[in-house]
Predict the 3D structure of the following.
Amino acid sequence: MTIVQEVSGVEMVFRVGEYPQKVQTSFHWHENVELVQPLNYPMKMLVDGEELDVGVGDIVVVSEQSVHNFGIEHENTKCIICQFPLKILLHAGEKLKPVKKQITAEEIGKDPVFAEQIAGLFCVIQKEKKVLRGQQNLFMQSLLAAVYFALMQHFPEQDKSKSIKKGKQEFYHIVEYINSHFKEDISLQSLSQMMYMSRGKLSRVFEIYAGMSLNEYINTLRINFANQMLKQGSNITETAYACGFQTVRTFNNVYKKVMNMTPTEYVKRKKDSSSK
């Protein structure tokens, strides 16, 4: 598993996401709004700690800075993915409001005009065999604006509670600290003291938004970093201690659990593939 946090904004992107295998993507967030619609198989999503069963034709609206990931349960799953910064719609002169998180295909079908707008945008995306960049594409921007304003009108969301906003902010702080200190001797106890939170609350907040335990996340970061060191020729003992493990034995055990192979097997495979 690769950990990714898309914490900075990107330009408008319209594409068909294709997942040949079953996979649980890593949690991430970004400054853009994201629209997701499964095309051929249902999928699961975790958005700000809420588990969603997303059917074919449903639309999930991921708001700015929302922590989310995909659970792909069928091989060769395809879905529409649109990413865009809300600021591109501000010139329209309409106040932007939050949109309902999940809109079902049945709800969409009740309004023929809205269904046609959605179909128009997504049809253009599906016809293209490449990723569309919308920053310089006024036609795509106009379609998107029509769709988003229709979403605002027909499927508004109530303002999020203060507790949800606070929990997300706490999660950001936890992840930021771990990302900077995962190579150190970090523990739940030390983290809870650093964050002024009880160990139970810290664990709950992290698991709600990340969809994985704190230890799983720390170990995955460490193993990703270990792979970089091993590729560059570092030996296993050096790598183990540099990644924050207290013993080589612990490193080997965690590595095998995460990678389904030992560090030695990983190094051998890399050498064999490079010699071909």
Remarks:
- The longest helix spans residues 162-181.
- The two ends are 26 Å apart (CA to CA).
